[in-house]
Amino acid sequence: MTKPPRKPSTPLLRESDAPLRSKPRRRRDPDQHQLTLDPMPARIDPCLALLKPRPPKGRQWAFEVKWDGYRLAVHIEPKGVKILTRGGHDWTDRFPAIVAEAKRLPVSTAILDGEAVVFDEHGRSDFGKLQQSLGGRGGKRISWESICMVFDLLYLDGHDLTETEFTARRHLLEGIVPAGGEEAIRLSEEIEADGETLLRIACEHGLEGIIAKDRNSTYRSGRGGEWQKIKCIQSDSFIIVGYEKSTSSFAGIGRLLLAARKGGDLVYVGGVGTGFNERSAAELRQQMDKLIISKPAVDTGRKRNAVFVDPKLVAEIEYRAWTHDGKLRHASYKGLREQQDDAAVYELE
Question: The pTM is what?
Answer without folding.
Answer: 0.73
